[in-house]
Structures are given as structure tokens and as C-alpha cells.
UniProtKB/TrEMBL annotation:
Similarity comment: family membership: Belongs to the glycosyl hydrolase 20 family.
Name of the protein described by the UniProt record: beta-N-acetylhexosaminidase
Catalysed reactions, semicolon-separated: Hydrolysis of terminal non-reducing N-acetyl-D-hexosamine residues in N-acetyl-beta-D-hexosaminides
Residues forming the catalytic site: E329 (proton donor)
GO CC, alphabetical: membrane
Organism: Dyadobacter jiangsuensis
Keyword Protease among UniProt keywords: no
Keyword match Manganese: no
Keywords assigned by UniProt, alphabetized: Glycosidase, Hydrolase, Signal
Amino acid sequence: MKRFLFGLICCVLVHSAMAQINVIPKPTQVLTAKGAWTLKAKTKIGAPADAKWSHVAEMLAAQLGKATGQPVSTAKGKGDITLAVSSDASLGEEGYRLLSTPKGVTIQAQTAKGAFYGVQTLLQLLPAEVFSETPVAGVKWTVPYVTIKDVPRYAYRGLMLDVCRHFMPIEFVKKYIDLIALHKQNQFHWHLTDDQGWRIEIKKYPELKTISSKRKETMKGHYGDHKYDGKPYEGFYTQDEIKEVIKYAEDRFVNVIPEIEMPGHALAALAAYPQLGNNPDKIYEVGTKWGVYDDVFMPREETFKFLEDVLTEVIDLFPSKYIHIGGDECPKIQWKESRFAQGIIQKEGLKDEHGLQSYVIKRIDKFITAKGRRMIGWDEILEGGLSPNATVMSWRGIEGGIAAAKERHDVIMTPGNFCYLDHYQAEAKTQPIAIGGFTDLAESYSYEPTPAELSADEAKHILGVQGNVWTEYMKTPAYVQYMVWPRATALAEVGWTSKEGKNFEDFSKRMEIHKKRLDFLGVNYFGAPINGKFEYVWPEKK
């Protein structure tokens, strides 16, 4: 009977606590008590004598110091705030336990990564002003007495950014990663090549940066308007800049997944190397309109050599175990009309052009696997037969994910109607121009990544969920932010919080506090005070 009463009391505390603890994503378990711990004038953060743990402590100290204007030091061992190694195997790689008592705050985790996520929760337990880049006076820096145990639901929690249609500067890419980390997401999917621009330096093929990174003009207005701005557009990242971003992400426990598109979405590459196309005598130009082009790679040995050379440099740059090769929206018309392509189909005993795409993908999969990595592709890689080691990113609804999981392939769920953050999020006539569709905050939040059609064993292959950001109509970092947050915040909770723990009404209440944090972080989110250009009107600019 006593055990029952204790369990009932704990249950009541957990549920009542969630209205008070405005943490996003919602933690797994929360118990609160009356009172709060207050930061000291000279707060000390203790951590194990390990480089990664020390780094987490130093990041926390730097942020607390900036916001409070008070000195915050780090030390080995215990402190007023202590990061400690836990022996609790149930926390896994990313889980943590946070305890706030009159003696201070302790964050326990099995890894520095788990401790980092505990730090993100600690920052959210403090007043929103803790995210300020400059000291804020008159704030009572307190942390409520609380016990939190928190473990993510899915291992893969991602956010993608397309920089091909509109190039994004390095400083914004870093801010994007900051926001990924704040929301306890762990994957940054960087879409680097497409018809409208090639954005990564490949030293063996220098014309990818001198030709493929530039287009003569860009569409303006709606796609159906067929209007162009007449202005040259360009941009690419050097390999040194790529390394800088990867290191920045690693410091925040975010993995960077590069995407190099093939065999479709190849027009920018063909503009520099036409011999890789289906008509080597054609003069190709980097794409200026949105949408899909018929110009795709021809699977000659020369093309495979090019793709393998490119991927070799990419793999040497990116430590990610995943390498994304696109594989989506590959028109087959040129292969149907090509005697060479038809010859490959006949020679290899392929059924049709879909089989030829599968042939290309399987060869690339074999190459990536031989390099010790794993290939990800959009769900079109299912067409013609799936590569043996491929992970499928299901975007055309959930059917591709279901089919792949039933074949025991790993799957990342990212269906357009829930996870495409280029859709309108309010009535179109009140919003800046977007590609179309409608996905509001509630719809993104409502998404359930594990399809009911899967058995328990099949469901284990659902790695997680990702939000996708295609930038055809997003010309500036401010517009990207406006379209991405807070819908990406909702998807972060979808990826982290248990199905039973989700509640949109509760999320909406916590989101009101979270918006104050985004204010201090300078995020141009949907719902912030904006001007006629849909840009945040900061208080000093009013």
C-alpha cells in the first residue's frame, strides 16, 4: 500500500511539474520541490578530468558569464554545478539526470554528450535572459529544485539545410547548428549540390567552384510567373570552411551529413564537365529555374570515376558515418533515348531504367561501404531494388519508409506534409512567398514517426525524424529562420519525447517561454514582432 501511495504521489508530482518546468523538448521524467537554488557570485563548475567533459563545462561557464556578468570558473571534480559520470546504463549515450538541490546542481551522464544535453536543460531552467550575449541586470539567477531523468526516444534527430538554391554564409550555418544543439537534435544534413548550384570545393575538379557554383540569374516571384531577376548569383564553401563548420558542430555534439546529389539533380556539375552527361556536345548551364531537369549523369565509367573522386574528398572531409547521395527525382527520359544506357541495361540484365538507377546507386553504395561509411538516399533509391547497406530517407509520404523497414533497412522519416518547412505555415496571402503546401506548428507537432503498419521488430529500423528546409524562396538567413522556427522546435520534441509524453496544448504553453529564449538568441522566428519584410523588429529598432 505504501509503495502504491508513493507511486501515486510521484505521478502527481510529475504531471504537475510539467506545467512549471518549461523545457523543450519535454523531459522523460520530472519531479519538483518547493524552492530554488541561486547562482553564487562566483559560481564554479566542476567536471571530470576529460577533454570532452571539460569542454562542456567551459561552454556552460562562458554562457553563464556572458549573461550574468559574473565570473564563472571551471575545475576538476565537484563544483556549485557539477558534471559527473553516471553508472546508470539506462541513460545510454545521450541521456542525463539533473538534480537541483540547496547544495547546487548536478548533471549525471554516461558520456559528455549526455552531459551537454543536461546543460541545455539547465540553461532552460534558468531565466530566459541566460541566452543573452551581454550581461543583463536585475535578474534573479535561480534554478528550481527539480529531479529530471531524460532519455531521447529516437537516435536520429535531424534538421536539413539546402544551400544550393540560395547560399547561406558560414556564420549563419553556425547559428543553425547552435539552434539544432539547443533543441537536443544531433544531425545537421547539409545539402551541398543540386541543379542550381554546387557549393563545395573539390580540389580534383576546380571548375566545380569556378563554373558550377555560379548561375546567371534566379527565378523571382512564383514558379508559374516565369520571371527572372537578371542578376548573377554564386557561392561555395572552401574545404577549410567546411572543416571549420564540422569542428564547430562537433563541439556541440552535432554530426554533419553531407549530401552530394546523383544521378539526377546534376545540371550544375554538367555545366563544368559536360562529358559526364548524356549529350557531351551540349552546352549545359547551371539551372536558373526551380524544379527538376532532365539532364542527369550518364553512367559511363568516366562518370563513376568522377563521382568516386568527389566522394573520396567528401569522405576525407566529413567524419560522419553517413554520406547522403540524394538519388531522388531522377528523370529517365535521356536514358530511354540513349543507346549507351540501353546497352548497360541489356548487358547487366536490368529490367528497365529504374533498374539502371538502382545499378548506379548500388555501385556507389559499394564504394561508400568500402570506405567504412554508410549511404543514405531519398526513398527513390527503392526503385529497381534497394542497395544492401542503404538507409532510406522517406519523404514522399511514409510508404517508402514502411517498405524499407519491412525489408529490414534503416529509415529516417521526413514526410513532406509534416516535415517540409518550406511550406506555408499560415494563410498564403498573409505570408512571404513560399513553394506551396501548408504545414503549421500543430501539424508538425502531431507527427508520429513510427508507422502503425510495422511490427515491433520492423519498427526498430525507424532511426528517427528530420525537418527539411529547401531554399528556393528563402533568399536570406532571416527568411530561413522565419520558416524553420518554431516548427523545427516541434519536430525536435517529436524526435526526443515519448509518444505518451507529447501534448500540443502543453507544448504551446512551454513555447511561449521558449520564444523569450529565441528573442535573446536573435532568432527571426514565425510569431515574433516583424516588419513588412517579415524581419524581426528588435526593440532598439522600433
